[in-house]
Amino acid sequence: MNITSLLTKDTVLLDLAAASKEAALSELVGKLDEAGKLSDREAFMNDILAREEQSTTGIGDGIAIPHAKSAAVREPAIAFGRSAAGIDYASLDGQPAHLFFMIAASEGANNAHLEALSRLATFLMDGKFRDRVLNAATADEVLAAVNDKERELEEPEAPAESGAPAESAPVQADAQAGQEEPPALGKVLAVTACPTGIAHTYMAAEKLNERAKERGIPIKVETNGSSGVKNRLTAAEIAEADVIIVAADTKVEMARFDGKPVIQTKVGKAIHETDALLDRAVTKDAPIYHAERKADKGESAEPKSGFYKHLMNGVSNMLPFVVGGGILIALSFFWGINASDPESPEYNAFAAMLNTIGGGKAFFLMVPVLAGFIASSIAERPGFAPGMVGGLIAVTVSGVEGADGGSGFLGGIIAGFLAGYVTLFVKKMFAKLPDALEGLKPVLFYPLFGIAITGIIMMLINPQLTKLYTGLSSFLEGLGGTNQVLVGLIIGAMMAVDMGGPVNKAAYTFGIAMLDAGNFNFIAAVMAAGMVPPLGMALATTLFKKRFSKQEQEAGKTAYVLGACFITEGVIPFAAADPARVIPASIGGAAVTGALTMLFDISLRAPHGGVFVMGLVDGGLMKVILYAAAIIAGAIVTAFLAGMLKKPVVQAA
To answer: Among all residues, which ones are annotated catalytic?
Structure first.
């Protein structure tokens, strides 16, 4: 497919009116919309801006290539804009941008479209081509420059004279000029990748190939683009390589480079600082890459792959729903315990609105989002929809008589991993389809079969997970007449076992059931114990800094707020990274708090809210102080247990 089938006269703007980056982007998006290339102008603009937030698409030399792969694109297209005065675009070289090529790729774009879009990126590496486009007087001259460049690339290169390899000429010229030849060097390998895999990926590859050829450096570059991995590096090539350059703003397969000198950098550096990268390769200025970093050496790096990476991808995307929803629920109690109940005299419309947004919407989406992003970490974008559906089934389909909900957090984790690996299976199943059907994979085959298989399996197993939850609830209800301190210790421990999963939900539901029955002690113990794990781990990051990475210390600051708001899930990042130490420490502190709350005979009528509802404790100021003391005591126990159990980490220099 020719580029001029994507870049047409009606998408060319020879004189941009914009004077700022965002205005230029808006003007180009408008041009695409006027040409009928977009189905939703605003959505595509948002996708373009989201790509710019990842890293600037101003590559230097007066060029900007804003681009996005978006569902808002009706058909793949390119818009061209030119500014004679130049626009401050935050380009890599700090200079104004004059030439703008906006690439709009649809989510279902086939390989032919994607290859044409990426080919344009390589054209812009040619200074003569840029000058010709910059000086074009009409849209036809711009299109002619593109067509001529395409024909030029289709023509075979003239053979080098005297039978010498063409790439050796620059080295000979340098030698004749009295310059030193580069040290003896085996083959350099490189990998390029950008988030969308359309422009920067191929521009970086072109620039590396071009400059290496001019300098007589043998190189092979693998591209990780939207149409897949091209020019893949083989195991034999990796074994023989002296140095490997990885210029990527997204994840690439790194384990294969274990034990090799690897230069890791951003994809933009390969475009704008190509010679500096090649200089490092020539002098072998590269650290040895290790696929796995050993814990006994005190290193604190996160694992690059596996269960932890996938789980944390889900957790990090879930936390905004937990934080926002939990705090909104807590704020709604300022107007009264029953302020969100239309049947209550305390009813307040604004409080009800906050409760609905926080509990009915944000908290409801927590588990589906967790599952969706776990699945997308495993199977990339095609895994997201099956993961979301599986997570929704986990919290809405019980299959158990008398059970209103489902399997909660635990079910969401299972649904996420299930959807991810089911999607990988589906992708493998359709891997050998003809190229003509390539565009149907992400929009038809992957979602249809991924959602169907994941949904059916979750519908079958979720009732068993729900039974676990209801069984635990029944067990706790049977303890209501026994020693109250013992019950407080048990439900306190349960609040910290799985941070929002079936065990935690069972303890919380038991507290709600007792609240409905007029016994306000149990919900007080439940809430106090649920606050302890994040508060305790936050305190541990303050008191025992050497046992936590910088990232964990920052997470500790957030955990103070989450714990105060009765959001037990705030401890999940710590528990996921080190469950063998964090979970026992959390259970110990929460159990102490639950027992102390029952010992002090604390009663509370609020089922949620954390510190925001402590003033509602029955019995006056002394009871409030005792309630706070129980929470603080548990947090201290958790902090010191974590401090003793965790090993020191060595912070990266």
So the answer is: 67, 194
